[in-house]
Amino acid sequence: MKTKRFLRYFLLSVLLLGSGSIALDRLRQPVAAPISPLRARFSGREVILWPMQNPFPLRENSSAFSGLTKPKPFRVPVLLYHYVEVVTDERDTLRKSMSVNPVTFENQLIALKAAGYHFLKPADFTRALTNEIELPEKSVVLTFDDGYRDFYTVVYPVLKRQNVAAINYLVANFIGKNVNYMTEAQIKEIVADGLVGIGSHTLEHPNLTLLSPDKAKTEITESKSRLEQRFGVKIDDFAYPGGYNNEAVQKLVKEAGYLTAVATQLGVTDEKANLFHLPRVRVGGLPGSEIVGYLEKKLK
Predict the structure, then answer these.
(1) Which of 60, 145, 152, 156 is nearest to 106 (CA)?
(2) Given 3-state DSSP classes, what are the helix, strand and coil percentages for the chain, each rounded to the nearest 5?
(3) What's the pTM?
């Protein structure tokens, strides 16, 4: 009886040592689901020799993460513009400070194109972060805030001439409000062209951080739905009025279904960026001959 018991334990030990080696080899292989348990039969009974759960954590560089690879590095300046015009009223110092001369603006685009820059739309960042697309080595995004009339009369013809993409963030309730803002017909024309995208800049351009959560939500969600209904396009991109935002406001923007949101904080977007707090660069009236060197400094 003792001999039989000894032989049983001896065989069990041999099986454990052998199967343990096999199990370790199996566990070292990256898997997407728990491994099957190792079993043996003794005296007509099935015995589990190894637990189902893998006790060895997968390393990030394991082939099991091949479908979850990190996005390739990129650094993209998002340029911020408001007015592109010649301001004739010398008393309007605010407008002068936010305006770029039309000739200077076109020269900026010409210089960027000559340097090999590709013009993107903000939603391309989302696609790049999910590895749907790979961004060109030299990329830039042109953004315009508020939907001013000079975008249609001055900027849009330049964009068409240079075949350059851009996005304009519209204040929904300011459309056609007065001669300063684009009309519905003008916006429909540029949207139909496909070169220019539109995004939301709220209903009334308030500081969202000073509003109650309900009012901020209305500004964010209603502007999106109104623009979508009015122009028949999906609104994926948002701009914070004045750049003012916080975590609560960012959360509301994300919950509303936007894919990106730009602020006014100085900086360059990369693969680690918070898509709901994208920084931007103001180049202002910088000459076209200097803009490439300026951006390359920002990209370092």
Answers:
(1) 156
(2) 45, 20, 40
(3) 0.77
